[in-house]
Records
---
Amino acid sequence: MENSIGIIGLGSMAKAIISPLIERGEYNPEHVFGIVGSSASIASALSDLPKGVSIVSSEDSLSREVWNAPLKLLAVKPQQFGKIKESVSSFQSNEQFPKPLLISVLAGITLKSLKKAFPGHTCVRAVPNTPSLVGEGLTGLAWEDNITLDQKIAVRKIFEPISEIFELPESKLDSFLALTSSGPAYIALVVEAMADGAVAAGMPRSLSNQLAHKTLSGTASLLREKSLHPAELKDMVASPAGTTISALRHLELAGLRSALIEAVVLAAQKSRQLADEVPS
């Protein structure tokens, strides 16, 4: 089946990955095949996807089309990993794909576990983050040893439309995930708290949210475009005996910096624990 892709699990991240590929003409909708857990999930999975994409439940005999595809995206929840089993397919090997390629975006599931569950495949771990939904993501990739250069190129094409790509040793993926995948939640919490503070200080809610969001995006752009270290920007804003240094003093006393450091460390530890929880 030429230039087809199979998708196992169709949540928001899987849609964010496949939709730009269809829009760019990398895949025809008729060559995109998906599996969801039950027939009741098909309608919601098809929403926002182009007409022609085929999605079936895992019990449907037509699910074999996913396993026939040379390239597959595994995008179920990590807790569902033990329920996914490699199925027999009529995959025809070629120079680019001597074995079918499986790309997993599951947090904490190691290449060792993937290769055990999918022995007929070449496996790749990918760690994208939610800003990929708006084409501003980051993706970490770790390769199985026997992957070919052509397969690496195929994988990069999957994620390049939505993210900047970092090829990393697998041992670095847990910390990459803790910073980039969990990081948007930390930042969202900080932005929400800042907006709440403005409300407490007398600002209307809608304007507080708008200003907090713009402060976030503007600060990120300034750091990036001027190649500033965060401490440089902090010092630019914090004048002697001013409002900002008074606020920063309070944040230091409250332990904000330490709390964020420990949050990243704990997220990385949890990612490693997920790997240990996979049934052997």
Note: The longest strand covers residues 122-128.
---
Amino acid sequence: MQPAFGVIGLGRMAQALVLPLLESGRIPAHQLLAVVGGSGSLEQRRLELPAGIGLVSADDPSAPKVWTAPVQLLAVKPQQLDSVAAAAPPVTDRPLLISVLAGVSLARLQHLFPGHCCVRAVPNTPALVGAGLTALAWGEGIAPAQRDQVQQLFADVGEVLELAEAKLDAFLALTSSGPAFVALVAEAMADGAVAAGLPRDLALRLSHRTLAGTAELLDRRDLHPAQLKDMVTSPAGTTIAGVRALERIGLRSALIEAVIAAAERSRELA
């Protein structure tokens, strides 16, 4: 039987996207076929996913069947792309190929998969808990029904935006690399609290909650970050003392340069 949805590469991000489809019943488990890199990872994936999914290794004789699905999610490592494309059989019925590979352009995707309608998607790791941000850039020949399918797929795990492909590098630098920058801030704040006298576990939990609560306040009240800073910064108080220390060491400049460096690296990968 032809699968309704094919997955090429089944890492954490692909699983985060696939699970809502299965849990909602929009795709029955037996109509999903996923191909993983090697037989060694098959058993682990079976433990992580609902029963009934078609799950095969790339060297399985039935693996090429994944390319017959009308919707395909390409989620391999970028360095595996050429070998995956070389192994893909030619298609003529214009299936939808959704790529989540960082830095791989629509032009390259269309060159490697000439029989497909291609979409670039840039999701971020908070999609794992349904709080993601995803940018979509459309290739040529995408039908309205296919657009709806893609938008719904990513809407299940967070907010979806449509952007020109030229803006994806900046989007990736902020939203996909950004969680790592925020995690460093969370860790450093917790370290500071430990140095000031709090136990490690409590310091980590309070750091995470402070960051989450601050982000929610900024978003729900539609506040500029400077407004929130001023709300909690009183004359000669504790907060302005801390802000002064951050300005002295150049925290803002460091974060600006980190986002720019990530965007430049994304362009290099392309």
Note: Strands lie at 5-8, 32-36, 54-57, 71-74, 96-99, 117-123, 132-138, 158-162.
---
Amino acid sequence: MKLENKLKLARVAQGDLTQQDLADKVGCSRQTIHSIESGKFVPSVELALKIAKILNSKVEDIFYFSGELS
């Protein structure tokens, strides 16, 4: 299983929020947002919850597993 995300889609749907705008709102760097969007970094539960709240979404609408359970 791999953790996937729809962060970029959710971010753009919120009035074309930039990576920097989102980073400022959740208290992380723009590079962290970029790394999450590109699948290179898995956010902590706390950061995932902050992101979901800022984007008016459920965590599971942004982050999800792909593939089969082992």
Note: The mean pLDDT is 95.
---
Amino acid sequence: MRSVKEEIAEKICYTELVYGRINKKLNIELPNNKIEEMVRSIINETEESAFQQKGKNIYVANKTRKIRLTINSNTFRIITADKLK
């Protein structure tokens, strides 16, 4: 059986709106391909224990980068990224 981390890494997808949302919420200005690279890196670097499913969303909290990703558990579409305190 595949882990949630492996499944997310393989199936993650994006909408046009999410790129702008991630740039705005993280206060950065990256092109779409760099955002995708960053998200892939965060998923790969984060321990499986930091993946938490609540309702229809999966939260990936990377304490090193101080970023939390929110991903829809049904579509594997990234919803947003937030700064952690």
Note: The first helix runs from residue 4 to 11.
